[in-house]
Structures are given as C-alpha cells and as structure tokens.
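Morning. Coffee machine broken again, so started the prediction first thing and wrote up yesterday's gels while waiting. Chain of 171 residues, entered below exactly as on the submission form.
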Amino acid sequence: MKINRLETHDRLQYLIKQKDEIGICCQNIINKRPFGDRPFYIFAHKREIGLDEKFSLFLSGKYRDIGEVPTHRMIWQPRLTKPKAQTNSMLFKGYPGTDAVKVIWIIPERELWEQYTKGKLTQCEIVVESIHKFQHNREELEAQEADDPTDAEIDQIYREISQDASFKKVV
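Came back before lunch.
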C-alpha cells in the first residue's frame, strides 16, 4: 500500500492538536472549580445539532453555505457522580488546584473502534483499554471511586450551589 507522507503527517498533526485541545478544555473546567476544591468528573459526549440550531448557526454569517455548519457538538459537563459508560464519550476526573487529570475512559463510536488497535496510526492504549472494559467489565468503569462524595455530601454541595446562585441573583 502506498501512502502519501504529507497527508499522513497532516493527519498526525491533527490528532496531536485534538489531544491538546482536550487537555486545555479539561484544565479550563478544573480551573473554574465548579464544586470548590472537591475532585469531580468531566463528562464529554458528542450530540447532534438540531436542524433549527444548525439553521441559526448558518444565519449567523460564520459559514458560507449550510454544508459547512457542524452536525455535532461536544458537551462538556462537570459532575459529582460518574455517569453510565456509553459509546462516543469521554470521562475524566479533575482535581482543582492541580493540573492532574485522570482519564477514566475514552470510548469512541463503535464504527471507529478498529482504528485504535495496535499498528494503526491512531493506536491508543487508553482507548483500547476503555473499549475492552466497556465490552467486558462495564461495572469497573462505572464503579464509585474512593474520593467520590456520598449522597448526603452531594445534596449538601448542591444546596450550597443553589443558595449561592440565589444570593447572586439578589445582589
């Protein structure tokens, strides 16, 4: 098989850029300390953009034609609890006050799983391990961690957040 070295290099650079962007996005969320100094999860998942929103984006003038408008977006959600593992998602654990980010899973769309196996340009041990656990040991992916808050602590944190939000509206 003949490969175009320039095209291959460009794809590799694109993958490296994506990895950097994920790290930057996670760190930005951690720096905002949505739950104070408590460690928390960052759940990222891809969702389809509805036709009405797609049309609105097109009308913004940012895109030359409707074909250039993205069809999907990444939702980045800080959480106190682990979500259920699902395809087309990533889960990280952030630790405020540090640049430490623990990768819990990166599970791409099923159609892409083969691309991450050994010997491929996009080979990735974390993705392969995440896929394997998703298929054979999902309970491990979804298990509560030692530093996760209890249900009572979660209720207290959410009460504090809602009281703080109500106070800011009044002021």
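The CA atoms of residues 132 and 138 lie 9 Å apart. Going to sketch it on the whiteboard this afternoon.
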